[in-house]
Write a structure and sequence with these properties.
By secondary structure, the chain is an alpha+beta fold. It is about 25% helix and about 25% strand. Strand 14 and strand 15 form a beta hairpin. The longest helix is centred in the C-terminal third of the chain and has 20 residues.
Length: about 675
């Protein structure tokens, strides 16, 4: 039977009061207080009571579609009262509640509900257990309400909710109704329950009702599950791998007790974030993160693999193979594709960001750094022990990436790798700081493109030398040409990028359209450390700036100096702290031999990890630790995020005194 959600428009629960016009404006959901359970490409966001629906992020998602908007559980018409949330890795959580209206009149609570939720690829399974310490048996009615949604993820991100008619089909077994919208569907399985839909004229949800008898000092359990399907998905989950290291698999946590807890959580999250391309089993890569980036991202997947390289080179190798299959082959301005270029992101449908003027094709190549980073990862993985046959198989992709670096990567012929969006609806900024206002002058004004980011020149220098080493080792020509190109790039960089401001002397964040170095002090310069493009004296100087008061927050390195005109601690790229960014800085310091500074930065990350309960977010506020005491959330930050989780592995390597670019011995 057809069903249509009753609500046609909502706004985020954090919107302004009704007498303010801002209340009518859809807002991006806040994420920091929600509970997330995941197994790529499936995720569930809920409140601390286990229910879904109160906050605009809540829902059951599979791929880029929210299949279910709300799930609420009641007993005898009352809401359970939550008292606990216990996570068991990334994919299972138990919510504990009290059922006081089923209890006796004594002071101690004697009736409780345990609600265990487990997520696998395409499936959510929940068990409901009522436990009693009463001396007498009692009857209780549990009622579950499930509201289908089928909202595209991009609409959820924009805070937009609108009616989507869905159809309902009842199978032969009355406990397994199916809801459908387009190619997406889910099936509810609620054994021993009475299942119905459309219980009231204005209620289009599914309902499951159980009548339980709870014995004296005993328990009674029921359960339900949802199985989701979407044939349009371009990624799929990885089957759980028994070889994946579990808790306690790491060994170097005696350096700081916080490190072990962070590593446990990070390894769980990384396992749950793994995806594959259909038709290519066993070639796993890390999805960028939840909820918005649950797919392949060139830059993010490369950095996550690179930061976790001390733990394992197999994900690095499989990530390289996945990206090589999708490497650019033609020049296509509509997708920003060029021969040899590594993609930015992969989706099953075009991605529109309402209100931002951004409309990206399903496969989009608008990234300036993924291609040199691809080469760097291959060189690192080869040095870390990637099997020779696997490296040799990637040599054609390596050559194509290096050709892009030497030719198409320099769009205006000035000798530097640069970018500019030519479509008018692509990403205006195409480095890792890809928000529209991320490239600023020190007075806060925006730089004009084409933009040549400083760190990309460092990546390119490192890629040219690393690529040359790989080619030479495998008896391939071209190494000397690459080394000569790198030497010229290093000389050009030294002449063009350095600025001097009241904060000191350092490379500007970028060159603008007029070849002027944009003079803001930012974390980007930390990515230059360890690449070889700087002298040892320059590396020492930059390391000192990055641990100084204007850049060091106490919980990581700020993206922008607090002395800059555009600084704001809750700016996405203009004053916040990103865990992966700070880990890259620490990694570069260690590679440059600046071990004291590297450990100082790692200690800041450990303080942040502790403050977030060891599941670190994508980013957090750049407020100083001496003022806040605990890290302040950036409320729209994703979590878990693959490169933030992988930061734990790099930090462990640094504290152990190991090379953070090599596999652990």
């Amino acid at each position: 039977m057809p069903a249509t959600p009753a609500s046609t428009a909502t706004t985020d629960s954090t919107a302004a009061p009704a007498n303010n016009t801002a209340a009518l404006t859809p807002l991006q959901p806040f994420l920091n207080d929600a509970v997330i359970v995941l197994r790529a490409p499936t995720q569930v966001w809920s409140g601390r009571d286990g229910d879904l629906g109160e906050a605009s992020i809540h829902g059951i998602y599979h791929g880029d579609v929210r299949h279910v908007r709300a799930v609420t559980l009641t007993y005898d018409g009352h809401a359970p009262e939550p008292i606990s949330v216990s996570a068991h890795g990334a994919s299972r959580v138990t919510f504990g509640s009290l059922l006081r209206r089923a209890d006796d009149s004594s002071a101690d609570p004697k009736v409780r509900l345990l609600r265990e939720r487990q997520v696998t690829d395409g499936t959510v399974v929940e068990s409901l257990t009522v436990r009693s310490h009463l001396d007498t048996a009692f009857r209780i009615v549990l009622r579950l309400r499930i509201e289908p949604d089928f909202a595209p993820l991009q609409d959820v991100k924009a805070g937009i909710t609108k009616a989507r008619p869905w159809t309902y089909e009842r199978r032969a077994d009355a406990t397994t109704p199916t809801a459908r919208f387009g190619t997406a569907s889910f099936t509810l399985d609620a054994p021993n329950a009475q299942v119905d839909t459309g219980a009231a004229a204005d209620d289009t949800a599914m309902h499951a009702t159980w009548h339980l008898e709870v014995p004296p000092r005993g328990s009674a359990s029921v359960g339900w599950s949802i199985a989701m399907d979407d044939p349009s998905l371009v990624v799929r989950g990885v089957v759980a791998d028994a070889a994946w290291p579990r808790r306690g698999a790491h060994h170097e946590t005696e350096h700081d007790p916080r490190l072990g807890r962070w590593l446990d959580t990070a390894l769980d999250d990384l396992e749950a974030l793994r995806l594959e391309l259909p038709g290519h089993p066993q070639d796993a890569f890390y999805a960028a993160g939840t909820p918005w980036f649950f797919t392949l991202f060139g830059r993010d997947s490369i950095w996550a693999a690179r930061l976790s390289l001390p733990f394992d080179h197999s994900v690095a190798a499989s990530t390289l193979r996945v990206l090589a299959r999708l490497q650019g082959t033609v020049t296509d301005p509509a997708t920003a594709q060029q021969p040899g270029k590594i993609l930015h992101e992969l989706r099953s449908a075009p991605l529109e960001l309402p209100g931002e003027g951004v409309l990206l094709p399903p496969i989009y190549y608008g990234t300036v750094d993924a291609t040199p980073l691809f080469v760097c990862l291959l060189a690192d993985a080869w040095r870390a022990g990637m099997p020779e046959a696997e490296v040799r198989a990637l040599l054609p992709a390596l050559r194509r990436a290096l050709d892009w670096l030497l030719h198409d990567g320099d769009g205006d012929g000035d000798g530097f790798i640069d970018y500019i969006d030519t479509t008018g609806h692509g990403l205006a900024n195409q480095g890792w700081k890809d928000s529209g206002d991320s490239i600023q002058w020190r007075d806060g004004t925006l730089a004009e493109g084409p933009i040549a980011l400083c760190e990309v020149q460092g990546y390119a220098y490192e890629a040219a030398l690393g690529g040359a080493d790989v080619l030479t080792a495998f008896g391939e020509p071209g190494g000397e040409e690459l080394r000569d190109w790198a030497a010229r790039l290093k000389a050009r960089f030294a002449e063009a990028y350095w600025v001097e401001t009241p904060e000191g002397r350092y490379p500007g964040i970028a060159l603008d359209a007029h070849k002027r170095p944009v003079d803001t002090l930012t974390s980007n310069i930390g990515h230059l450390l360890g690449t070889g493009i700087l002298s040892p004296e320059e590396e020492a100087h930059i390391a000192g700036l990055l641990v100084g008061d204007s850049m060091s927050s106490g919980f990581g390195v700020r993206t922008m100096s607090s002395g800059a005109g555009g600084f704001w601690p809750l700016s996405y790229h203009g004053g916040s702290v990103w865990m992966h960014d700070t880990a890259i800085v620490a990694r570069g310091m260690a590679l440059a031999g600046r071990h004291a500074e590297a450990r100082y930065v790692v200690d800041e990350l450990l303080a942040a990890a502790e403050g977030f309960g060891y599941r670190v977010p994508e980013l957090h506020s750049g407020d100083p630790a001496r003022v806040t005491g605990t890290p302040v959330p950036y409320p729209a930050a994703c979590r878990p995020q693959a490169w933030s989780a992988a930061a734990a592995i790099t930090c462990a390597s640094i504290l152990a005194g190991r090379d953070p670019s090599a596999l652990k011995e």
